[in-house]
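testing teh design pipeline on a random one, pls ignore if ur not involved
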């Protein structure tokens, strides 16, 4: 199998993936999107004879456009541009989950500071203001008062970039100091972890403590539905327990909760932290799936 890897920086995640591919004697074409030119008429040399392309771009815009070109060149790509576009934009993400009947936090989108303030007042305090595009918990704000809301909205309005003028306002979910990250391929979980923190943001990138998590039947159901909602592929699906107070988080009854809510699906998911806390060989499972995906695509092309 000849694998093309779209990237802009080789992180620990990519190193794990590349190591597993090399151990299986797969040929690798590393494609640095910062240096590559993508022609609309003719595929660059780097895309010749590729069986599959894996998108590991950091920047959303590069991810969406590079995968569009890979698809146009007739090379199977994971994840594809439609999945990237749905997952990378929080508005598209929320709409897709809602349309599929997946429980997800209630959200308003407003285009002016005044309209956003009305949404914030409607949700009540605290509520959450997020950028429509972003990762690692950056530029997210938990708003605890009207004065804080006014200040944050004014800052966003004056930052200049058009994305800051799209106000994504979300209800604050009272989770028990943790959330769950599930790595899944086409809705089938590879492994899952719980991320715990005293901070309201429980991202591993923000220093949350991580541990392996065993998925129950409801979580398995939602992982599959959330994956289908955004188009499938190699995804990170984030869930929160709802109906459990923070004071109960460390008690045995903490698993007694009303339901999960899916707050996000990630398309260029990081898995290094997950690989460190689980007995599952995560990169090996990812490559297993890539091999199956490439073989399926090749068979489909032959029979077409």
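output:
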């Amino acid at each position: 199998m000849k694998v093309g890897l779209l990237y802009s920086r080789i992180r620990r995640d990519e190193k794990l993936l590349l190591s597993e591919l090399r151990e299986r004697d797969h040929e690798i074409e590393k494609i640095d999107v910062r240096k590559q030119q993508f022609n609309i008429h003719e595929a660059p040399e780097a895309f010749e004879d590729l069986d599959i392309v894996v998108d590991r771009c950091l920047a959303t815009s590069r991810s969406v456009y590079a995968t569009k070109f890979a698809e146009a060149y007739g090379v199977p790509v994971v994840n594809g541009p439609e999945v990237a576009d749905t997952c990378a934009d929080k508005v598209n993400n929320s709409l897709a989950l809602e349309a599929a009947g997946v429980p997800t936090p209630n959200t308003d989108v407003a285009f002016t500071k005044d309209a956003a303030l009305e949404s914030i007042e409607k949700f009540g305090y605290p509520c959450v203001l997020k950028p429509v595009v972003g990762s690692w918990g950056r530029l997210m704000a938990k708003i605890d008062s009207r004065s804080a809301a006014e200040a944050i909205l004014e800052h966003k309005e004056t930052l200049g970039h058009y994305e800051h003028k799209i106000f994504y306002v979300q209800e604050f979910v009272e989770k028990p100091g943790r959330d769950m990250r599930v790595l899944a391929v086409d809705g089938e979980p590879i492994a899952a972890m719980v991320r715990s923190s005293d901070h309201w943001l429980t991202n591993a990138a923000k220093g949350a403590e991580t541990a392996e998590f065993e998925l129950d039947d409801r979580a398995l159901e939602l992982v599959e539905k959330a994956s289908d909602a955004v188009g499938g592929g190699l995804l990170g699906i984030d869930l929160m327990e709802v109906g459990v107070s923070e004071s109960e988080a460390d008690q045995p009854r903490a698993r007694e909760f009303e339901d999960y809510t899916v707050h996000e699906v990630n398309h260029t998911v990081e898995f290094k932290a997950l690989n460190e806390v689980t007995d599952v060989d995560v990169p090996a499972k990812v490559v297993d799936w890539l091999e199956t995906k490439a073989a399926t695509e090749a068979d489909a092309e032959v029979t077409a």
